[in-house]
Recover the amino acids of this structure.
């Protein structure tokens, strides 16, 4: 079975779906691997690194033609699909719930597609869960980015030239990214608060040293580890509970997502206007529409002295680690889907079932 | 009594005190036992040979034979029996001591009832000895499984008290009338035996060690009473030592089990203190305490710590580092086994342990540490659950089936610290806790580890 | 009560010995680690075998023709020495686990 | 006595020499204060903030004309000097040893000048020591900048998708900035090593959790808390001792300075070429010529995959805190130099003696 | 002896044991003292009134008068004297006890020398009592300052040993000949007195508490000997208790001062163990240990911790947080006073304490905390030096003159932890360490704080 | 040596009492905190005043005309009671510092 690694085409993306190191491990398991020229460059993997690992380095067209399985980090786009053939298996993050057109296009090609972001949130799937591995890095980098953009420092310092009070950091959404953001901000000495719709996250946030802002929660249950969409009533209560902290915050990191939907708006423009001069908001949900009303993807918007940075670029900016982890996830996933180097899908099995979106041109999920 | 014998007895008494004292510290306990044993040997030899009686040779032969037989049997039993059977053995031996006291009383009763004082000592020696004897045998039976269930006697309390009162009454009457009356004697004997049985029968098997300690204390008192009878100092002092130390020990044991003495004795009538979440069908769990766990680790060569989400919840990262440090200074080889999904976010344990400056070199990944559990003496699991759940290997129906776990089961001993028997993130039972190698150290991780550290410091 | 007073008068020193022994017993055991509970109990059990001294005395004082006394005495010695030897031996074995490494 | 706050003119500079808050304290002590329009803007102090504190807000020319004392963060430049009058007292960082021309210019004006960077390194001077207060922030921000620029994360993480090894950080120069850099990198979970010519810094570095790389040191003594220039022999030994760590480092922060001289070159181009692909060097000594041969002030140079960032911009980038601390230093200094609101200089006294560079047109130090 | 008196004595003896036991724990010490005192009162009253002698009323009056006079004087002295004079008072009282024993011996020697046994007891009672008496008086003199210098006697060792041997010889001779001989008696008395003086004279003032404890133990033995003479149990047991407890206490006190008993007694001949860097001209420093410092803090209401560079060097940030936590749980109000230049970089203490998760709210800036030292019971200075150096206020020549410092001198007690008397960054002496309120807790900060924590845990 | 043996023979119980008392004394004091050293020493000192009992006995047994004995006895009582009362009182004052707060 031949696996093809494609170069990412999305702007700003520096990752690659398979690292030389992991490729080598797959080859040892009996797979063949082809990589598109220069695919690893932005993650500091040279073509020669791939060659040394036993990977064929080829032009883009060759990869599409020769590979049975095509790997990407980001969703396949129109350009890609032109080159896809019937019977090929596509693996990447497809965000199928918000991308019905893409899914139809794949189906119309008669291809098969697995979406990595559809991975169920169960313990044994954790080593294939790219959302986990990438959001984790995103949480870290969001805080670093925030610290970089701020004109204040994080820690408390009592010095001869006066006392610097610690920065106040507020985290919306205590998922994987939110937790890592808490940990990072806390390490740097900030006073951290966090809030989430799922009540079980209180203990988790506290276990990392953050203060949790509880919002009265009636019936906003979670589903399979993911949050459901919040009611208007909840949104109102949340604002009330969080506003005091928000208006004092020096850095706000928002990470709230609802799988398959637009990200909820948690900070309105009106709220931004009441924030501290010099505060920074890092909106990690920008790609899903943003948690902050004023944020624009990949732009820095300054509103009344508040910098609002809409980004998803965070994990890509630690591309070396991000690519390593992504590759390891892919490796585990491929091993899960194969037996002795050939596909063997058990559709009764939760992981395969949930991630297999299109099977030989037939859409299974939407 | 000859001066020499007096001095010998005096020395024996001193060895008893010193021996008991040394038995109270792990480092010196063995020495203490030997010292006391030597003193006892001295006292026995002295008793046999130093006196101004005219004793026919046959008596010496009999005594010699008795000692030889008893010694050989005692030695063999003690050496042969499995380690796990030790407590029941103690109970058995204790019963023999009680029986011996009773027999002495029986013999003496027929000979020496000159004064009220003597009568009192003899009669109480007989009763106490008899109670100890039958009680110890019951305890032994319960521990070795021949007496399985808790036996409920109807109107237990009334029967019990009636027997007790009758014994006292009979004994008092015997002392009052003074003379030798075999009927009364055997009545008394029977009463003591019955009361011993009644006393121990309703107490649950888990509480047996406490009961044995109590009976042991009684044997000591019986010995002391016999000592008064013979105006024999070593018996008197030795017996009283055992008696008072035994009572204190009994209370200490109750405390260590978080119970009161009365709840042990009357325990079968009150509610049992179940641990929330424990699943009876998986077997029984074994509880331990900080002191025992600390000693285990103190004398281990290799200890692996498995941290989990509970460590983070308890914010016990600083204490666990202290534990690791103190063990290391004691020459124990300590490592942390970090499961990739321990905690609630990737790298959760790393953040936590970095905060307390744990050396990165001590953190070992799952794949590297798993082969090492084989020659690990003690694994200390702190607030982890799913990541050490063997269901991941064994139970295809389990939601974590197929997830790689830390194979702590391969270690010699496993100590698990968590607050209750509640499940972890995956919400499933963990058989590991019911493993015969596992001892549960219940409590908040921070408190439990702090206790461990201070126990270790005192060693 | 009267008898107690009488006893005390006649045995004032014994009373002191009694009370002091109780104190020594209590003080000696105070605050020992829980792991040692069982070995200590076992050791104390062996000590309670001191009753053997009484059993030997019974034998020594027995008329060689008083078979009942001899038998009972014999039994008492056997049981007593069982308690002593078995007790110390078991304790010793239990304490093997406290071997210091290296 | 009228104190004038000037707007900084150096490119990239965001600080201001006196904050509204500290101005208020000085006014309470009987001083009058004038501020140039917009001087505080980049540190997020509005003109109105100054007004509220009782400060007069005036045009540039007016400040120069009215004030007896003129305050700046950076050295006065030619433009400034044009407006300076005889008898005025200038206070700022003058770097007089490396700026003899500037000093002469001031003298020729017949003015008086105090240089804040000439502050003696004694305990009681610490609350007036701007080098300390600013370098401290620089050390923090240098690491944040480094973390931002890197494609790796700092901490060790053992995750389901594999283990990320901790980043290795190497600090050259364990002065004020170096120590804070150590502390910050350590907090974020990096493995930190440090080296310095002064042997007493070993204990200090270790007290913050860094490993110290000792270099055989014969006779490279320090003077009054500052380092002397190193001998060639030392430089050679240093390279030997540090190279192994340098070639493994993910982030290098250099802070080595010798007062009044060019910064020593500690990392040659040849060394940079042997460093890891993707490594980052933050050269905080760039303004004094740089500790790294290839670094250029305010530029990012990429050499063989290694990013070399020459900067002094670090403290400015935390302008809010930096201005606060700077202001407090100035406050303490002015209080030290005055009695009841009028100057009273005791030239026997160490602090006054060391910092008074030009007195009424006469150069005292060079 | 009447039964009642026997029982009374028995009870008194028990109160002595229980009282001593309780005196060993801070929580119960007061009660222990009262219990023992009550027992003592009982024994005295019993002795006076319960006997079958025909005693003329005048004797009762005399006894009553003596007791009244002694009680009033004793009470007044004890209540009036300043707290700091307590140890010398103990010495004085102890001397009186010894004198009392000697006097008894003197009286009895003229009356009751029937047996060797009696002679032995009386003679040794006299000698021991006399040694205690004169020794205690010398100790008292040394402590209250009347005997200032260490007095060196030429050929001390030889003289000392000669006196000792003469006493023994004379005593043995007196026992051997048996009869009453006033000359010998007073010779013996004089010998004892001289030996007591010789014994204590060369020992330095700082070691006096140890000597007093030793003499105290001797008084106990004298009392016990008198008890044997009268076949009096309460004296015998009470005296022995004091004797054996006193020896153990003496050894414990030596240990706490890091000395051996022999080095105390022969101390004046061996080198003194100076602390490196201590400056004699600034006065003397007072050393303390973890246990005392812990008790001080345990019973304080407000404690302020002053961390300095040494805390960072020792990496003791985690332990200090533990200390703060445990004090807080004990109801003590704990804060950290952060000096702006403590450590070696701006914010050094903040980084350190944040690492161990100390609540930011507990860190108080210098200007805010300085007024609070006034009502602070204990200040614990950990590895700080320059930032608490009063020279900054007092000494214009000092390099730190004019620097604001933490005014820890205003607190009631100051405990300073550092490794030696070495200077800090500024390289200057610190008078604070020689302040009479200051006690130095020497040692690495991590080890010292760990000890403090474990002491506190055991309270 | 002979005398010791003799003493032991005649006073075997006293010997036990002696030895047990020594043990009790040792055990009771073991491992007390150093702050309590001084109060404890003071308390023990007060207890050593038990010698007063002997002094009283001297007085009780004295011939009312034996002025020397009476005087010495009187002195002995005064000194003894000084030791007792003063000792306990001083100890009590020392222990005032261990008041529990609140
Ligand atoms: N690492 C990740 O990225 C991530 C993310 C999401 C989910 N997960 C999942 O989380 C689980 C992690 O496994 P784990 O073993 O670390 O945790 P776990 O299975 O959740 O078990 C934690 C245990 O700690 C105990 N505990 C809680 N608080 C405690 C305290 N204060 N003191 C002592 N014990 C305490 C709890 O028992 P008591 O209540 O009886 O004390 C609980 O059983 C896995 O199932 C994993 O899949 C991991
Ligand atoms: N904060 C800053 O930015 C900065 C920068 C440069 C200089 N300084 C200067 O540094 C000084 C800071 O004052 P400070 O009071 O914090 O420190 P310090 O005056 O330097 O005193 C620290 C004390 O800690 C003791 N110590 C060292 N290691 C120890 C250990 N392991 N355990 C216990 N004690 C230990 C030392 O005494 P032993 O050797 O006897 O143990 C020393 O006297 C000031 O003079 C300040 O001006 C500060
Ligand atoms: N067991 C496993 O193997 C496994 C693996 C990965 C993740 N998880 C768990 O799954 C959960 C979701 O993780 P994620 O980071 O991918 O989630 P996500 O990215 O979908 O959302 C981030 C967070 O935003 C929160 N959120 C959504 N709407 C909100 C609102 N209106 N207000 C406030 N908060 C809101 C969510 O509750 C979630 O915590 C986490 O608890 C994570 O630990 C489990
Ligand atoms: N006592 C006080 O009041 C006070 C105030 C501030 C600073 N200080 C001390 O003054 C000292 C200097 O501080 P700084 O940060 O301003 O110094 P700096 O900025 O002048 O130099 C930074 C560091 O570079 C080091 N260095 C110079 N040449 C080097 C070489 N060739 N190789 C390696 N390292 C080299 C220096 O030793 C110094 O530690 C520090 O120890 C600081 O703690 C004291």
């Amino acid at each position: 079975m031949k696996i093809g690694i494609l170069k990412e085409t999305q702007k700003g993306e520096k990752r690659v779906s398979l690292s030389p190191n992991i490729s080598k491990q797959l080859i040892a398991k009996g797979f063949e691997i082809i990589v598109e020229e220069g695919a690893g460059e932005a993650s500091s993997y040279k073509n020669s690194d791939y060659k040394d690992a036993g990977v064929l380095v080829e032009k883009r067209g060759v990869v599409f033609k020769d590979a049975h399985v095509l790997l990407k980090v980001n969703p396949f786009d129109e350009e890609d699909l032109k080159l896809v053939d019937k019977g090929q298996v596509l693996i990447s993050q497809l965000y199928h719930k918000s991308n019905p057109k893409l899914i139809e296009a794949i189906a119309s090609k008669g291809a098969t597609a697995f979406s990595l972001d559809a991975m169920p949130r169960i313990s044994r799937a954790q080593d294939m869960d790219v959302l986990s591995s990438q959001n984790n890095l995103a949480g870290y980098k969001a805080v670093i980015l925030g610290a970089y953009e701020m004109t204040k420092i994080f820690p408390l310092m009592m010095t001869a030239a006066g006392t610097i009070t610690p920065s106040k950091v507020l985290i919306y959404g205590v998922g994987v990214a939110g937790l890592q953001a808490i940990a990072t901000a806390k390490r740097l000495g900030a006073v951290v608060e966090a809030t989430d719709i799922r009540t079980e996250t209180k203990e988790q946030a506290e276990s990392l040293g953050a203060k949790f802002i509880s919002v009265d929660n009636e019936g906003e249950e979670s589903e399979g580890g993911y949050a459901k969409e919040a009611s208007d009533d909840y949104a109102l209560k949340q604002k009330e509970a969080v506003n005091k902290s928000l208006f004092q915050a020096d850095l706000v990191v928002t990470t709230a997502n609802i799988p398959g939907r637009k990200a909820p708006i948690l900070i309105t423009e009106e709220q931004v206007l009441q924030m501290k001069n010099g505060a920074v908001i890092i909106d990690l949900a920008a790609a899903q529409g943003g948690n902050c009303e004023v944020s624009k993807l990949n732009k820095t918007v300054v509103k009344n002295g508040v910098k609002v940075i809409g980004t998803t670029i965070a994990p890509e900016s630690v591309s070396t680690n991000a690519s390593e982890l992504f590759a390891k996830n892919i490796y585990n996933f491929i091993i899960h889907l194969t037996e002795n180097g050939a596909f063997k899908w058990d559709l009764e099995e939760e992981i395969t079932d949930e991630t297999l979106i299109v099977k030989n041109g037939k859409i299974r999920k939407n | 009594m000859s001066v020499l014998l007096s001095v010998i007895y005096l020395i024996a008494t001193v060895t008893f005190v010193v021996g008991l004292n040394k038995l109270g510290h792990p480092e010196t306990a063995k020495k203490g036992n030997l010292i006391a044993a030597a003193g006892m040997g001295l006292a026995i030899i002295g008793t046999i040979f130093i006196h101004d009686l005219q004793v026919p040779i046959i008596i010496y032969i009999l005594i010699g034979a008795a000692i030889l037989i008893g010694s050989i049997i005692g030695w063999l039993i003690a050496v042969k029996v499995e380690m796990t059977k030790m407590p029941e053995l103690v109970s058995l031996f204790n019963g023999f001591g009680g029986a011996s006291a009773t027999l002495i009383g029986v013999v003496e009763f027929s000979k020496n009832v000159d004064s009220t004082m003597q009568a009192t000592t003899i009669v109480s020696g007989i009763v106490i000895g008899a109670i100890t004897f039958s009680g110890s045998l019951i305890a032994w039976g319960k521990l070795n499984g021949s007496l399985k269930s808790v036996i409920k006697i109807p109107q237990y309390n009334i029967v019990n008290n009636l027997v007790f009162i009758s014994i006292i009454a009979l004994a008092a009457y015997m002392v009052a009338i003074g003379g030798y009356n075999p009927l009364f004697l055997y009545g008394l004997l029977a009463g003591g035996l019955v009361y011993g049985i009644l006393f121990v029968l309703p107490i649950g098997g888990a509480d047996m060690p406490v009961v044995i300690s109590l009976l042991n204390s009684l044997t000591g008192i019986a010995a002391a009473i016999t000592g008064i009878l013979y105006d024999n100092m070593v018996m008197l002092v030795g017996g009283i030592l055992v008696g008072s130390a035994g009572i204190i020990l009994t209370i200490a044991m109750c405390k260590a089990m978080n119970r009161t003495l009365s709840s042990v004795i009357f325990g079968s009538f009150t509610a049992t203190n179940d641990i929330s979440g424990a699943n009876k069908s998986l077997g029984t769990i074994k509880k331990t305490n900080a002191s025992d766990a600390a000693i285990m680790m103190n004398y281990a060569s290799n200890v692996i710590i498995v941290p989990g989400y509970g460590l983070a919840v308890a914010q016990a990262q600083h204490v666990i580092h202290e534990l690791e440090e103190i063990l290391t200074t004691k020459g124990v080889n300590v490592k942390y086994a970090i499961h990739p999904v321990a905690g609630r976010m990737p790298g959760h344990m790393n953040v936590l342990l970095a905060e307390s400056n744990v050396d990165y070199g001590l953190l070992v990944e799952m794949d590297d540490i798993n082969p090492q559990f084989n020659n690990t003496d003690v694994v200390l699991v702190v607030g982890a659950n799913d990541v050490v759940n063997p269901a991941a290997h064994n139970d295809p129906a389990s939601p974590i089936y197929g997830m790689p776990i830390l194979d702590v089961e391969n270690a010699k001993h496993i100590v698990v610290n968590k607050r209750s028997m509640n499940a972890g993130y995956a919400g499933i039972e963990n058989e590991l806790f019911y493993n015969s190698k596992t001892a549960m150290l219940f409590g908040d991780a921070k408190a439990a580890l702090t206790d461990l550290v201070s126990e270790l410091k005192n060693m | 009560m009267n008898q107690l007073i009488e006893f005390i008068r006649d045995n004032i020193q014994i009373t002191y010995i009694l009370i002091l022994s109780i104190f020594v017993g209590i003080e000696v055991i105070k605050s020992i680690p829980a792991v040692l509970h069982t070995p200590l109990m076992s050791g104390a059990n062996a000590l309670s075998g001191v009753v053997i001294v009484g059993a030997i005395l019974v034998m020594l004082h027995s008329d060689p023709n008083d078979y009942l006394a001899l038998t009972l005495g014999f039994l008492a010695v056997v049981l007593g020495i069982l308690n002593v030897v078995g007790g110390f031996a078991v304790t010793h074995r239990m304490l093997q686990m406290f071997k210091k490494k290296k």
User: Anything to note?
Assistant: Residues A 123, 126; B 308-310, 313-314, 341-346, 348, 383-387, 417-420, 422, 424-426, 444-445 surround NAP (ligand 1) (CB under 6 Å). The first helix of chain D runs from residue 20 to 28. The mean pLDDT of chain D is 90.
